[in-house]
From TrEMBL:
This is Putative ferric reductase. GO terms for molecular function: 2 iron, 2 sulfur cluster binding; flavin adenine dinucleotide binding; metal ion binding; oxidoreductase activity. PROSITE patterns: FAD_FR. Residues 1-27 are annotated as: Disordered. It is found in: Membrane. Keywords: 2Fe-2S, FAD, Flavoprotein, Iron, Iron-sulfur, Membrane, Metal-binding, Oxidoreductase, Transmembrane, Transmembrane helix. Residues 244-344 form the FAD-binding FR-type domain. The chain crosses the membrane at residues 34-57, 77-94, 114-135, 155-174, 186-207, 219-239. It comes from the Bacteria. Residues 8-21 have a biased composition (Pro residues). Its cofactor is FAD. Pfam families: Ferric_reduct (PF01794), NAD_binding_1 (PF00175). It is a multi-pass membrane protein.
């Protein structure tokens, strides 16, 4: 149904909660994920503290007494901390399942971005301060000293090449630059981060005394390097190879859902054993000609079954236009599944699903797969023209008691997630009127980044605890 709010809308009384659907495992899953997040944070901060302590015991503080020794000492510290953060960045990019499940892709991406910029700044600080310190603090001697380091010190030339690779990654990760390049180009350049980190290894082991001063330190650094390399080999390379060999996905058909929107149906082998849930996304490569190496992330738009998968995409991008004409029988390679916008994140029997435009696709799959009884689940769908999956949502409403609320029209203004047809009440009041007991719900949100942030603010303002808000944004 479509809803028009009265101008005087105020929060209504919460309806009595029906008997909860099956869910005794939800709190235990939430606690387990919280434990993983805490352990991951402790491991990172513990590693940073440990290398700082080693720097201190190696006269790191005492060496701050003179200008040249202070530069060298600070260069050592920045290099140690940068090394830990660079390896953490590799692990964050490695798609480790336990981290994906505990953090979710959006949160991992934010942490990865923060760690990436911090590590890059420290790498630059390390290069500048070490070179300046080796030049005895004489700024005019820095160019000549830098040349000597690159030519005469083992591994430094490789480290310089690695730094250049990291510069390319960081420059193209700045928002202004990302807006000017295609996702496919950005994704390819971003893979150079692995090269940048890998080229630093010989330099650290051959010339970094902090890495080899004791067996304990040697074991520590080799363990970190081994864990990072192992994570990439197992989760980014090995697991996708095994899954693709087993499931052998192919295109079964392409269906037009609306102008500019198509659904691609996929079939394969042993799909009931593919560990993918409604709401998650996978990286797809369609082997239909030149450009097949480009990885495109698409969410499932229907609950996965033993017979097949379905994705729904807009056709206004390069990948979408290509999918509109992909032929049945085309082989498909996948990576994943990824994302925490699934039943795993659920903590309450009541759920609200809020999507905008094609962002409704993972929520459509969730509405089909989640367990609930009539009165426990509601979908708020903001769209410009006709809503996607209208007939399918109607069927879910008739058979499972899902409440569907369409919010048509363009956004009514900056900072609001509601449509232009909504009366002039604030977003929090509108949300409470639409879902009076929203504070008792798990809220799943999917849509463009700016719009999703406005929804986040309204949901938190309506009293939903942060741990019950699950957001997936369009963006990269």
């Amino acid at each position: 149904m479509s809803v028009v709010l009265p101008p005087s809308a105020r929060p209504g009384p919460a309806a009595p909660a029906p008997a909860p659907a099956r869910g005794p495992r939800w709190p235990s899953r939430a606690r387990r994920d919280a434990t993983v997040r805490a352990l991951a944070g402790a491991a990172l901060w513990g590693s940073l503290l440990l290398v700082t302590c080693w720097w201190t015991t190696d006269r790191g503080v005492q060496d701050l007494g003179t200008w040249s020794s202070a530069l060298t000492s600070l260069g050592r510290l920045s290099g140690l901390v940068a090394s830990v953060l660079l390896l953490a960045q590799v692990v964050l990019m490695a798609r480790v399942p336990v981290l994906e499940a505990a953090f979710g892709q959006d949160r991992l991406a934010r942490v990865h971005r923060w760690v990436g910029f911090c590590s890059f700044d420290l790498v630059l600080a390390h290069v500048v301060t070490i070179t300046w310190g080796y030049a005895a603090g004489e700024l005019t001697q820095v160019p000549a000293t830098a040349w000597d380091l690159v030519v005469d010190y083992p591994g430094v030339l490789l480290a310089a090449a690695g730094t250049a690779a990291l510069v390319a990654v960081v420059v193209t990760s700045v928002k202004a630059a990302r807006r000017r390049i295609r996702y496919e180009s950005w994704h390819l350049i971003h893979l150079y981060a692995y090269l940048g980190v890998g080229l630093a290894l010989p330099h650290q082991l051959w010339t970094g005394t902090e890495f080899t001063a004791s067996p304990t330190r040697t074991v520590f650094w080799w363990t970190l390097w081994g864990a990072a390399a192992g994570a990439v080999l197992v989760w980014r390379i090995g697991l996708p190879v095994v899954r693709n060999a087993r499931h052998r996905l192919r295109v079964a058909g392409v269906v037009t859902e609306a102008p500019g929107v198509v659904s691609v149906h996929l079939t394969g082998r042993d799909l009931d054993r593919m560990p993918v849930q409604a709401g998650q996304f996978l990286g797809f490569r369609f082997l239909d000609g030149p450009g097949w190496t480009r990885n495109h992330p698409y969410s499932l738009s229907a609950a996965p079954t033993r017979h097949g998968l379905r994705i729904t995409v807009r056709t206004d991008g390069d990948g979408g236009r290509r999918l509109a004409t992909v032929r049945p029988g085309t082989r498909v390679l996948v990576e994943g599944p990824y994302g925490r916008l699934s039943a795993r994140a659920r903590t309450s029997p009541k759920v609200t699903l809020i999507g905008a435009g094609v962002g409704i696709t993972p929520l459509r799959a969730l509405a089909e797969q989640l367990t609930y009884v009539p009165g426990q689940a509601v979908v708020l769908h903001r769209h410009r023209d006709r809503p996607l999956f209208a007939a399918e949502f109607d069927a879910l409403a008739a058979t499972r008691g899902l409440r569907v609320v369409n919010l048509p029209g363009q956004r009514r203004g900056e900072g609001s997630w509601l449509g232009s047809g909504t009366p002039p009440v604030d977003d929090v009041t509108a949300l409470r009127w639409l879902v009076p007991d929203v504070a008792e719900h798990d809220v799943y949100v999917c849509g463009p980044a700016g719009w999703a942030q406005d929804v986040r603010a309204a949901v938190l303002g309506a009293g939903v605890p942060a741990e019950r808000l699950h957001v997936e944004e369009f963006g990269w």
